[in-house]
Amino acid sequence: MFSSQMEVHTDVKRIVTMLETGGSLPLTVTSGHVTLVDATGRQHDMLLDQCSSFDRLVTFLPGVLDQCRPNEAEVQRWYINRQRYNFAIDDGINMTQLRRQSDGWSTIQPGTKIVMRIVTTEVVRKFSARYRCCCGTRNDVKVDEATLLNALARGRIITCRRCQRRFQIAGTKGKIVRREGSQPNDDKPSQEADNLIRNFLVIRVLVCCDS
Ligand SMILES: [Zn+2]
């Protein structure tokens, strides 16, 4: 007991000396925090270590949802149970998606902001940069076609000018595949519950008439 108190005392003295001489603290003392913004926009303080991989962060989601209001937790659980969510690093300008196998997990540092988004899919006949938000506001972005295709490949960020919900719109080409017994696309939580969601990844699947 006495010797461990002595060790703590010595450690504290060492740290004070380092600070006085302008040194930096060892990592174990500065162990950092990461902000997780859930899909409803609520911020959660996480330890860096809790965000070291997709699977690790997922194990902490039940605890994160416990910090939310019951209706916020419920709608997020609905999407999580259907695997219709993902994570992205938000640097204020870009959203970099954190896939399960992504290298991005190793770039997370103290102060990094991770956003959880709800993933929705839309089938379109033509790509556009226009997005009608769930609040009813039509958000138009004026870009030429080449810029648009480039932006959609990377994922274009649109912040609704009225309600400030954030959407990352990504485009991909695909075919409509109808599978026997597949869940209908309109399987959604109630509109009231859905309105609590603030962060989205919208994947637009471009289908051609002859595909
Ligand atoms: Zn809106």
UniProtKB/TrEMBL annotation:
Residues 33-120 form the Ubiquitin-like domain. InterPro entries: ULD_fung. Pfam families: ULD_2 (PF22893). It comes from the Eukaryota. This is Ubiquitin-like domain-containing protein.
